[in-house]
Amino acid sequence: MDYPRIISDPVYSVYQSRIEKEVRGYEMPQHIAVIMDGNRRYAREVLGTDDTNKGHELGKSKLREVLDWCIDLGIRYLTVYAFSMENFNRDDSEVDYLMDILAEALTEFANDDRIHLHKVSIRVIGDCSLLPEHVVKAIDFALEKTKGYDDYHLNLAIAYSGRNDITNAVRGIAKDVVDGKLGIDDIDENVFGKYVSTFGLPDPDLVMRTSGEVRISNFLLWQMAYSELYFIDVYWPGFRYIDLLRAIRTYQQRHRRYGKRPCPAATSYSSTPRASTTSARSRYSTAR
Length: 288
What we know:
42% helix
C-alpha cells in the first residue's frame, strides 16, 4: 500500500533518525566498496526514458551524495566500481558518454571545496592505458589536486578487473623473483598484497551492490576475502541515506570472526531483531 507523502515522509524521517542513532553507537566500517549498478534500468523503468545517459548522469550525482554521507559518518575509505573492463563491450556511443562523464566527475571532485575541506584523497585503480587521453588527463589532475590528503579516501575503479589485478600482481612477483629482488620462500599473503592495485589501502569491510543483482562481477577479488557482502534491491540513482544506514547496521550485526570462535561479548548487538535478509524491498527507491 502506498501511503500519502504527508504521512510517509515524516514516518521515514523518524525511522531514519532512529537507525542513524543506532548505528552511530557501534563501530563503523572504515572501508566501504560499492558496485554501483542500475543506472540504465533506473532511466528506463523509473524515469520512463530510453535515454539511459540520464541514468548515468544521476548516478554521478549520487556518488557525490554517498561520499558526503560517508564523510559525515566517519567512514574514511570509499571505493566504487565506476567502469569495468567488461563495460568496454557496450555500444561505442555509451562508452564514449561514460568516458566523458568520468572525466567530468574527476574534474568536479578535484575542484570541489568540500573535497579540500575534508582532505579527501582521490585515487584511481585499473588499466589507465585503455582510457582515452582526456580521461587520463582528468585522473592526473584529480590526483595532483588531492595529493598528500589522508583524512578520507575516494577510490575509483576505472577499466578495472579483479582477475587482471591478480594477474598483474603475479606478473610483478615473477619478474622480481627472476631479477633476484624476491625469493620464492618470501612470498606470502602480505607480500602478494603489495603487488595489487590497492596496496596501501585497507581491505573493504563492507562490499555493497545495488540493483538487486547478487554477484560481485570481477570486483576486488583478492581484497574482499573477508568482506561482508550486502546486496540491495535498489537502483544506484535511487540509493538513499537510509539504505546506507541499513547496510551499515547489517554489517554491525554480523560477526566477522576470520575463522575464530565468537567471543561472548559479540553475541548481542542491541534489542533490534537481526535482519533476515541483506536486501531492501524496493528497487525503485527515491525519497519516500
